[in-house]
Amino acid sequence: MQFCEEFFSLTYNIFAKLENMKETKIIQPRFFNTIKVDKKKGTITKTSTETKKFIDEVNWFLNMPAVLANKYTPKIYEYSLNAQKAFVTMEFVNGTNIHELYYEKKLNDKLLNTIISKVKDMLSEFQNFKSPSHDAYANRYNVYIKKLVERILKMSDNKEFMPFFDNPITINGVKYPSLSKIILLILNEASNNLLTSDNFYFIHGDLFSANMIFDTKTQEVKIFDPRGSFGNDKNGGDILYEWAKFIHSFDGGYDWIIEDCFDVSVDKTDIKYNFKYDKKYYAAMRKIVLNAVPKEMYSKVLLIESTLFLSMIPLHADYPKRQLMQLARGIELFYNYIEEINKKK
User: What residues are paired with 220 via a beta bridge?
Assistant: First the structure.
């Protein structure tokens, strides 16, 4: 396949820049968890079959600066890092999951602005804690380039996706290049704009709506289910990634995709889809969220957001219609990024 030759030609050059870097195994973000709620004690106990990922998560809580933990996460009561019986028991936090607030149309301008204000304060406080990592460039490479390459190569072996690699794609009547060409464009943009040695700071790493609870009484946001690592860095990561994860619920429509709130069909490489949401509500919430992204970060955050959708496709093999939506939205979001950077020229 011509795609593979072009793909490996580009990625060879990227790998060459990091020839002394050790290989990092990319951990899949989807895993099986068991949750037990003890209402009497007011606790939640969590275990997982993905032990390494889970232990990274527990360590994230344990290594979190105390001043942040007291404000933004549930209290940890008990835990074990033993690979054979790892678990964590934490405080049951009163409040409502932000995904639920959004999906059930319980958000309004005032409430969403309050939540965003709390999130911005939290991210600002995170940036008071610089990561000691000396491999910021390499870790960005692992997350923004290597992960995408690995995931896309998995797609290239799927007969349902093969036609997209070598043929132009149409999404809701708009024509785009083949997926192979789009991926090469994305890798070029990512290598030129995202691979820096800028400082890493403490981050959550999976800051999307379902991983946040808002207590309407105290007006506080609590976060849980962290990523646990960013490349090889267990303590920090790229603040741009936090913003990309946050907006992909509201801009990309991720929350509606995981709720199967859409119709989608495909004829060869012609995808037609329609979200089944209140478009006025969606547009209002989206505008508020996008306006909250720091202007100096905005275009890069849009680029990262597009890669999130494309790299998640192989992880949803049990839901082929969701995969089509993720493909369509990933491509559309990348061209939103292109439109944004063209405004600056």
Answer: 215
